[in-house]
Amino acid sequence: MKQGAAWRVGTGFSDQQDPGVALSQALEQALSRTGPPELTVVLVTEGYDPERVLSSALGILGPRPLVGAWVPGIILDFRVYRRGVGVLTIGGEGVQAVTHLEPQILDEAFAQGERLAQALAGQDSAPGGTILLFPDGCCPNICELLRGMYDRLGPDYAYLGGGSGDNLRPDPAFQFTESGVARGAVAAALLLGPVFEVALDHGWDPAGEPVIVTRAEGRRVFELDGLPAFERYADLVRDCTRVGFPARGMRHPLGLPAAGGRFILRDPVRVEEDGSLVFVTEVPENSIATVMKADAESLIVAARGAVRRAVEAVVAPRLLLVFDCVSRQSLLGPDAEREMQAMAGVTPPRVPVFGMLTFGEISSLTGTPLFYCKTVVAAAG
Amino acid sequence: MNFDVVELLTIYEVANFSFPARYRDLMREIVEKGSRVLGVRRLAVMVEEEGRLITLGQWGFGGNGEVSSKIQNPGENAFVHVMSRGVKGLIYLEAAGRISARERRLINVFARRIEDIIAVKQMERKTRESERAFRTVLNSVQEAVFIFGPEGRILDVNQTVLRLYKVASREEALALSFWEDYSGPDNPREEICRWWNEAPEDESLRLEWKARRPADGSLFEAELFFGKISFAGREAILATARDITERKREEELLRSIFDRTPIGMYIVSSGKFQMVNPQFERLSGYSRQELIGREALSLVFPEDRETVRREAVRMLKGGEARPYEFRLVTKQGDTRWVEETVTSWEHDGRRVTLGSIMDVTEKKRFAQKLEYVSLHDQLTGLHNRVYFEEQLKRLSRSEEFPVSIIVADVNGLKLVNDTLGHHKGDNLLMACARILRQTLRRSDIVARVGGDEFVALLPRTDEAAGTAILQRLRAAIEQHNCRRPQLPLSVSFGMATAQDPKELLKEAYRKADDLMYREKLYLGTSARGQIVNALVAALAERDHLTEGHARRLAHWCRILGERLGLSPHQMANLSLLAKVHDIGKVGIPDTILFKPGPLTEEEWEIMRQHPEKGYRIALASPELAGVADLILKHHERWDGSGYPLGLKGEEIPIECRILAIVDAFDAMTSEVPYRKTRTVEEAWQEVRRGAGTQFDPQLVEVFLQLASAGGWPDSPQEAGV
């Protein structure tokens, strides 16, 4: 797809208490750069009623395409805001957008993905464009949703996005489009005009021998190497107990081999009574996994490398989108700021940066949309 | 981490495919691994079935149906794997960019692994389908099917087993013992064991078996076939059981019918008896042991063997079964007519013939008799009118011309029948027939065509020859009458000749009949008078006393008539009446006429018929016709109590009144076997008592005056009678 000739980007942010005021302020900042947008992306953090935010946005924008989600942190120009409302508007010549809110992702996720694809790209429209996806990070079958969606749309589209969520709480988050607000759903927008170069990295490396996921169902792994999953995992990780497991598991995710020599990471988030492990998302049965390790430096290097590759792939980037896993912030702790600085260091000044902390990241860098964890996805356009 | 480790892990992944039951789940796994591990962005798996490629699954084509074109024109980023190991088909895998050698290697492993899985799954599917087909066939078989292991354990059964043996479920059926639960006692178990140990692979065993229903122990007749098969990779026995209870019942019924039927039945193969039923034994006189193996034709009367052989050949050529008759020679040497129906079929590779025979000897005799009766006159033994008509037609078409026809009619037959009885008439007819038969030639055809009419057909006989024959007939009748004058035979003849077929034989017959009739008219009353004379003579000869009585009556009637001044005509009639008034008694049997005692009422009834019989006889004779009326009334009484008309007084002709007095007086004074003779005085007194009741009183007075005047003899002897 060719780059739109004169597409414009506007970003804005406000941490005013009142959701409506916050939205208005943020939107006003963004609109000042784009004028009436073809697509508006709204991110809100906890403390803001998404219904009121959406209502305010619609009051200002009217029935224009809008997509958004409730996120644990908003990234604006490499600063992370844990509270507030962030807005991205894209407009200008050659820009078009369509949104769809697919409610309640259930067991038939593949079919829902097909339905979502059908809603975004009807049979009459020419293939191509970027699909921005904001699924609920708590949904267990996002991978299946992506495969269903891709089966219907094929490789002519770029897929970008991140799982929405409420700052590591397992409760369903909010997703919305101009048509309304939902929970446990996926909000999506097909954007035509801007073209993005995408790069991603996570900075994690294998830390031990491979294990076979001998029995799993969705995101629940019952056995590794034929043994109870936690028993085998604890054997690999050492010093791992049920008490305080999420924190320990976050530091030792499993890595699944992926195309191009990469690994896709899967965070274990819970140990069940039967010794099975629940991961943040799908772990396929009969897959090979290794326990992964990382440190602050490797994470920061990986983030910087991803942004650099994305930015360098575009001659004059007008926008940088960043989807940074929220667990990386937790792991980095005080070094999280350094990650942002590292990414900023490889990004040209005046390029507006808009992003979010995510519960899982979506990219079709290897050809098909995959659902990543603990990864930084950077898209420059 | 270097590439070698990632490659190893990738191979681990590829090696770790599962074998899900559904192709849909396999496709999910292929998509997940392919997209994640190998960066596959499109894939399709197709297998060849019945010469066509069937898509098992595809992914990433965006629903635009470009699978075929992608496969046909794969780019640098595509990999097409042709499956040929166990399953035919192809796997299409497409990456985002050009596929490197390392990626191609991994994709190749991936595709081959998929091929292996699909091959196994296809094999599993075919096996399942085969099993389903096997199970469907097994369950659709009407026979109960057991499959045993060599040790006798039941490995499988079909639905019919459950139905036939009333077993609730397949599991229950498999858990039971064939010998203990499914079989009744006394079955030939050893025979099966011997067969199992000794019989070759392709040999089967058939047995009749007492089968048992495990639930209630009830038994039923079964036919079992045992065969050796390979089941689940090892030797097994296939046993099929069929309920033959109904068939056995039918067989018993057929056997019973065979044994009890009144029809003689046998089965012949290769010309020899194989089986006979008791009725056939009875018919032939031979025992079963003597018949089995014996040539069937040996029991056939020699002259009829060709008929039997011809019928057998006709039937073997597919001709319809139809009954035919022949003579059977029994063991005792008797010849019996039998009617046989045969039918033939193939049995156990041999042609067998079932014969059913019935003894029709009596029927045959009856038919012959019936045929004789239908063509012959029972009284005379000559042919009848039916036969005559047939022969007339036959001769009309024949070359036996000239043909003469003689028509003969017995005269006065009715008179004889009426007066002397039908047996006398029959005697006349038989005499006539005898004369015809004896006088005519063997080649002539003679028939009785009516009550008193005979016809003779004389083939190859011209008029002259016919006339000569007719003359011989007349002479023969004369000779007959000379020998038997008491009842002469009078026959009227007519003869005509048809010279050639142009002259219709029927016309000749009509002409002969006319001539006969003319002769009958010519002979007319003379012929009847001749008979009457013969009758009178017969009456006289029958009883000389009666004849003397008639003469005395004639004498005394003449005296009394003269005294009373009767005319000469009346006097002549009275004289004749006195002689013939009892002529009607010729038809009364001697047992009544001469009965030594009082007559019964029935005998009197016969007796009282004689005036009427006499009347009819007299009418037939010109000499007697004048006194016929007097004969009829000669038993009337003055007071009207007589018979047959009940006339009284002067309604009764005077000749009859005179005869009544004279007849009574003569009867009282004559010696009669059954009555005491009275004196003249007693007779006089009796006559006087009858005056006014039985007799005309005036005539009684005249009679008594004559008697007292001495004009009457004291006794018959004195009167010179």
| Corresponding CATH architecture of the largest domain in chain B | Orthogonal Bundle
Number of strands of chain B: 18
CATH H level of the largest domain in chain B: which superfamily? Hypothetical protein af1432
**Whole-number radius of gyration of chain A?**
20 Å
Low-pLDDT segments of chain A: none
Return the domain count of chain B: 5
Amount of helix of chain B: 40-55%
User: Distance N terminus to C terminus of chain B?
Assistant: 184 Å
Task: Detail the topology: elements first, then pairings.
The complex is a heterodimer of chains A (381) and B (721).
Chain A: E1 6-14, H1 19-34, E2 39-44, H2 50-61, E3 66-70, E4 74-76, E5 79-81, E6 85-93, E7 96-102, H3 109-120, E8 130-135, H4 142-153, E9 158-162, E10 174-177, E11 180-183, E12 186-192, E13 197-201, E14 205-206, E15 211-217, E16 220-224, E17 227-228, H5 229-237, H6 245-251, E18 254-257, E19 263-266, E20 268-271, E21 277-279, E22 288-293, H7 296-312, E23 320-325, H8 326-332, H9 336-345, E24 353-358, E25 361-363, E26 370-372, E27 376-380
Parallel strand pairs in A: 2-3, 8-9, 23-24
Antiparallel strand pairs in A: 1-6, 2-6, 3-10, 4-5, 4-24, 7-12, 8-12, 9-25, 10-11, 13-27, 14-22, 15-16, 15-22, 16-17, 16-21, 18-19, 18-22, 20-21, 23-27, 25-26
Helix pairs in contact in A: 1-2, 3-4, 7-9
Chain B: H1 3-15, H2 23-37, E1 40-49, E2 52-59, H3 67-72, E3 78-83, E4 89-95, H4 101-140, E5 144-148, E6 154-157, H5 159-165, H6 170-175, H7 189-198, E7 205-212, E8 219-231, E9 234-243, H8 245-260, E10 264-269, E11 272-276, H9 278-284, H10 288-291, H11 305-316, E12 324-329, E13 335-347, E14 350-359, H12 361-375, H13 385-397, E15 403-410, H14 413-420, H15 422-439, E16 445-448, E17 453-458, H16 463-483, E18 491-498, H17 505-542, H18 544-564, H19 568-580, H20 590-593, H21 601-607, H22 610-619, H23 628-632, H24 654-669, H25 680-690, H26 697-711
Antiparallel strand pairs in B: 1-2, 1-4, 3-4, 5-6, 5-9, 7-8, 8-9, 10-11, 10-14, 12-13, 13-14, 15-17, 15-18, 16-17
Helix pairs in contact in B: 1-4, 14-15, 15-16, 17-18, 18-19, 18-24, 19-24, 24-25, 25-26
